[in-house]
Amino acid sequence: MSRHPETAPPEALEPLAARELRSDARDNRERILQVARTTFAEQGIDVPMRELARRAGVGPATLYRRFPTKEALVTEAFGEQMATCAAIVDEGLADPDPWHGLRTVIERVCVMHALDRGFTAAFVTAFPDAVDFAQERTRALRSLAELIQRAKDGGGLRRDVGLDDLIMVIMANSGIRASSPKAAVAASRRFAALQIQALQAQPSGTSAGTRAGTGANTAPLPPAVRLPLLKAI
After folding, report:
1. Is the pTM above the cut of 0.90?
2. Can you tell me the mean pLDDT for 139-158?
3. Are residues 60 and 153 in the same domain?
4. Once rounded to an integer, what is the mean pLDDT over residues 155-173?
5. Does residue 111 lie within any of the structural domains?
6. C-alpha to C-alpha distance for 197 and 221, rounded to whole angstroms
7. 45 and 118 in contact (C-beta within 8 Å)?
8. Same structural domain for residues 41 and 92?
9. Is the pLDDT of residue 123 over 60?
10. Domain carrying residue 88
11. Cα–Cα dist 192/195, whole Å
């Protein structure tokens, strides 16, 4: 017989009621985050915390216990998307053709923002206490600025375009309101194509989709999308 009897893991010694309480807390947190992501995507980040608590089926006290401030909830809800956005820019930087890399970044990021009103608002909002979120955004913007400079140096991007112009394009794209996610993506792709043509340096006879010698970008645009009028207030 062993002189060292096996001992139960610490969680097995924890009272059942305590384990259930901890499990409920995790479930509440995930439910709050899921509701926040869905609601922010549809309505933006100005939705009141009490409304989010109601939709999640928890009391305001429970919500504030998990997320003491709106800033904490917003940055946690969009942390993964911010990391995805930064990764998209990194992929653009890795493209051996910086103008192609920048075009791809614009197209992909515009689709992300067209599908989620809240992410755009989170992206352009300062959150002083959300260090990780802010650092990821700073990294993405720094990489985007580098890609912009490379695209200029390579002759694909107009010399008078800067980082603020690209942010303005993203913000304008987020204003697209469509009848369905599919329509939003289609409209975003056309909008991005229009902006890319405006951003392209001229003349660009050697660029894909450009008629040699004309100095004008004639790449075909994605199909037009009919967008619905806003509902009366």
Report:
1. no
2. 96
3. no
4. 93
5. yes
6. 9
7. yes
8. no
9. yes
10. 79-199
11. 5
